[in-house]
Write a structure and sequence with these properties.
alpha/beta, two-stranded antiparallel sheet, 6 helices, Rossmann fold, globular, eight-stranded mixed β-sheet, binds 5-O-phosphono-beta-D-ribofuranosylamine
Length: 210
């Protein structure tokens, strides 16, 4: 049975694009944005994917908004919910409802730099390695079980923008990979740690970019 995926976005949707173009064994049944003007919605429409704007400003109460969002996702009969630049904190009830089938991508090597402005903070700290992480979402922000990470070197002349560009290229590689593993039923949650079935070397859960 094909894995039915709903992608949640808020903005440009470059990760959405990478996921669509990776040719995964999934069906993207809907793209939902809390911002009606999100460029990613236009991209979804162009590709013939159901694109839904659910403006959070029309439902100011977070729990009520998330309940409405959950209803839409259930209506789409999603097996997996993918957060791809979805810039709203999710309520505990929403996370509990989809736990184990809710993935996020974060632009840092978690648990370093949860939250916003990760590239600025990485440069400020002078770390020599930075990157991105795909993880299952739990009620602790940017802290769920890690599926895959990609590391990039930090260069002496990097700015937040140049570093973000290098990290984003890796995001576009590891998110489709993580979704493929989920769809293939290869991700096993072992007490909060994710094991990849049939990966004796553990090589594939860490990738190094340039
Ligand atoms: C990415 O950097 C992602 O890691 C973060 O938000 C950004 C979304 O970019 N959560 P895009 O909308 O996928 O282009």
């Amino acid at each position: 049975m094909t894995c039915r995926v709903v992608v949640l976005i808020s903005g440009r949707g470059s990760n959405l694009r990478a996921i669509v173009e990776a040719g995964l064994p999934i069906e993207i049944v809907a793209v939902i944005s809390n911002r009606p003007e999100a460029a990613g919605l236009d991209y979804a429409r162009e590709r013939g994917i159901t694109a839904i704007a659910l403006d959070h400003k029309t439902i100011p109460d977070r729990a009520a908004f998330d309940a409405r969002l959950a209803e839409e996702i259930e209506h789409q009969r999603a097996d997996l919910v993918v957060l791809a630049g979805y810039m709203r904190i999710l309520s505990p009830a929403f996370i509990a409802r989809f736990e184990g089938r809710l993935l996020n991508i974060h632009p840092s090597l978690l648990p370093m730099f949860p939250g916003l402005d990760t590239h600025e903070r990485a440069l400020e700290e002078g770390v020599k390695v930075h990157g991105c992480t795909v993880h299952f979402v739990t009620d602790k922000l940017d802290h769920g079980p890690i599926v895959i990470q990609a590391a990039v070197p930090v260069r002496a002349d990097d700015t937040p923008d140049t570093l973000a560009t290098r990290v984003l290229a890796q995001e576009h590689r590891i998110y489709p990979q993580a979704i493929r593993w989920f769809a293939e039923g290869r991700l096993v949650n072992n007490h909060g740690r994710v094991n990849l079935k049939d990966d004796s070397t553990s090589q594939s859960v860490l990738t190094i970019g340039m």
